[in-house]
Amino acid sequence: MARYSRNDQAGVELPKAKLDRESLRQVLELFRYLRPYRGRFSAAMAALFASSLLSLSFPYLAGSIVDAAVRHNQGGSLAGVDRTALLLMGILAIQAGFSYFHALSFATVGQRSLVDLRRDTYARLISLPMTFFAERRVGELASRLSADLIQIEDTLITILPQFLRQSTLLVGGIALIAATSLKLTGIMLVSLPVLTVVAVVFGRKTRKIAREAQDRLADTATIVEETLQGIVNVKAFANEGYELNRYHDGLGRFLTATLRGARLRAAFIAFIIFALFGSIVLVLWSGARLLQQGEITFGELTRFILYTTFVAGAMGQFAELYSQLQKAIGATQRVRELLRETGEVEARLGPTPPSTLPRLRGDVVFEQVHFTYPSRQGVEVLHGINLAATSGQRIALVGPSGAGKSTLISLLLRLYDPSAGHLLIDGRDARNYRLAELRGQMSMVPQEVLLFGGSIAENIAYGKPGASAEEIEQAARQANAHEFVQAFPDGYATLVGDRGIKLSGGQRQRVAIARAILKNPAILILDEATSSLDSESERLIQEALETLMHGRTSFIIAHRLATVRHVDRIIVIAGGRVVESGTHEELKAIDDGVYRRLAALQFRE
Ligand code: ATP
User: Residue 436 pLDDT > 70, yes or no?
Assistant: First the structure.
């Protein structure tokens, strides 16, 4: 099948996040994931609001204590102090209760809706057409996605509640200060617009740099993934040094970007500290003067100072929240872009609904099929292929490397659609079938069989999810796999894949054949393994394939001509065209024929 080198795929160019109405609307759209949990979410919001309001009573009561204490010094009773202190303790207890509730609720609601979002994103991702994957680096996509989802998680669980809390403190604080002394409030508010403007400007810049740093980090993650995936190649070429250099350069670019961001952030923090504490000092100084002039009481000044720290804290937090929000918008944009892509099939939870498509006969016709890979426009790979296979026929596709055999099979599987011409299945254009139903009646035994981490039984059942143990065993018997599976101490429960045992090439093929038998397809695709097996496994596999091919239309991509002698028809493809077609005997008889040349080459070997 198609292979990709690591350099032929362009990185994903993504639009920059802007904090405007449109992007905010997009973020809000993701909030529909909160809808199923809106009851709990609203309750949490209410609790948060209540606890923020209670926070606001704290400076007020603290001021009252001070005033009561001052009155006591002037000869009053201490009862006021005691009462207020008790009241404060009571309020703190209630506030603690509210806080427990909202912290837990936000986490619960946030995580639950995030699980939904992750599931949907994944469902969409795996349903996307091959063109999508051909145009992107898959490692980058995966790491980006997980980073973006973590960012969204942060938004739901921290940023949003913080936003509500800080807004309440800010507005409430300013209102309460204003009720005490308008003069002081005016002084404090002078610094507010300055802070806001600076915060916005800084925020924009940091966002841009943070984004760049994230991109650079994603690049390095891609390098790691590619290297580990191809670790055998890396070692075989002794290219550890080369990979390390590549990674090191990537890290260097990441470090430059991230440090630039760090410098900016540091400057931002320094400014905020200076401005915030500066405004507190200013208020303190004016307050002290008002107190001297007898315009306010000690208690009022205390209230004032405490409210000012609240308001200042909220302002500082706002700047931080603003930049977080911008990051979240960037993240949601990418996730939403993905969710907006149209999948070719619909992946859904639970058992697959039964197909309404009756069993196909398996007549396949390629009619003047031309094809150009969307990722390589301008280079036509198939130039007008005509080919007809009737139900139950065995068709071998042979031809030199790069001729277009795998491409033809990709079209049959509808991984791509022809650029021109038609693919007819049972006389109907393949595009008129529901994709999942069509593929449900096809099966492929690939060259390199990839087993999933899991038991052998699970791997065979991949052909028919939900198959019974008997069905699995029967398929394994027909695929000549039962014997070797039985020989393992754990039998069908033997784990394979990364954490399990490693099966030999021939054994993996038989598992794949069992998988295909279990699926019972009308159309079968065999991509013959290029590596030769010993004659005993070869015989077992050949036998199993015979069973499998029986009564199905089979396409065999044959690399070794010895195996195609008995097929109904051999199609020779060269340079994206069908150049010869017929039985082994017929093709061998063509003087100067491509097949004859290929055969001569192979049999000499
Ligand atoms: P082999 O026997 O080596 O597997 P093949 O006959 O199966 O070869 P294809 O894999 O179909 O050949 O490739 C046919 C042509 O299409 C080649 O020139 C190849 O470079 C090109 N090609 C294959 N896959 C892609 C792809 N995803 N994007 C762009 N071009 C591709």
Answer: yes
- What is the CA(402)–ligand 1 centre distance, in A? 5
Contacts with 88 (C-beta within 8 Å, 6 or more apart), sequence order: 58, 61, 62, 65
At residue 530, does pLDDT exceed 70?
A: no
| Residue 439 Cα to chain centre, angstroms | 24
Q: Which atom of ligand 1 is nearest to the CA of 408?
A: 11
Whether residue 310 lies inside any domain: the answer is no
Strand partners, 396: 556, 570
Which CATH number goes with the domain that contains 86? 1.20.1560.10
Which of 1, 406, 560 best tests ligand 1's pocket when mutated (most atoms within 8 Å of CB)? Answer: 406
Q: Give the domain range for residue 81.
A: 17-181+328-346
User: What is the Å distance from ligand 1's center to 404 Cα?
Assistant: 6
Nearest-atom number in ligand 1 for the CA of 576 is 14
User: Which of the given ranges, 28-42, 187-201, 382-396, has the highest pLDDT on average?
Assistant: 382-396
Contacts of 339 (CB under 8 A, 6+ apart): 120, 121, 124
Residue with CA closest to ligand 1 atom 25: 2
Report which DSSP code applies to 8. Answer: S
Q: In terms of domains, do 48 and 131 share one?
A: yes
pLDDT digits (tens, 9 = 90+) for 89-128: 999 999 999 999 999 999 999 889 889 988 988 888 888 8
Same domain, 397 and 416: yes
The protein residue with its alpha carbon nearest to ligand 1, atom 3, reads 401
Say yes or no: 65 and 207 in one domain. Answer: no
Same domain, 561 and 435: yes
How far apart CA 560 and CA 599 sit, in angstroms, is 9
Number of other residues whose CB lies within 10 A of the CB of residue 150? 12
pLDDT band of residue 16 (cuts 50, 70, 90) is very low
> What span, in angstroms and rounded, lies between the C-alpha atoms of 225 and 228?
5
Q: Calculate ∠ Cα 48-54-60, nearest 5°.
A: 150
Residue 313 lies in a domain: no
Contact yes or no for 459/452 (Cβ under 8 A): yes
Specify the long-range contacts of residues 221-225, CB closer than 8 Å, at least 24 apart.
Answer: 221/139, 221/140, 221/143, 222/137, 222/139, 222/140, 222/143, 223/247, 223/250, 225/139, 225/142, 225/143
**pLDDT band (50, 70, 90) for residue 15:** very low
Mean pLDDT for the stretch of residues 553-568: 85
Mean pLDDT of 330-339: 79
Q: pTM here?
A: 0.71
Instruction: Look at residues 295, 311, 337 and tell me which one is the last residue of a structural domain.
Output: 295
Question: Residue 484: inside a domain, yes or no?
Answer: yes
The residue-averaged pLDDT of 243-270 equals 91
237 and 160 together in one domain = no
Helix (H) or strand (E) holding 442: strand 442-445
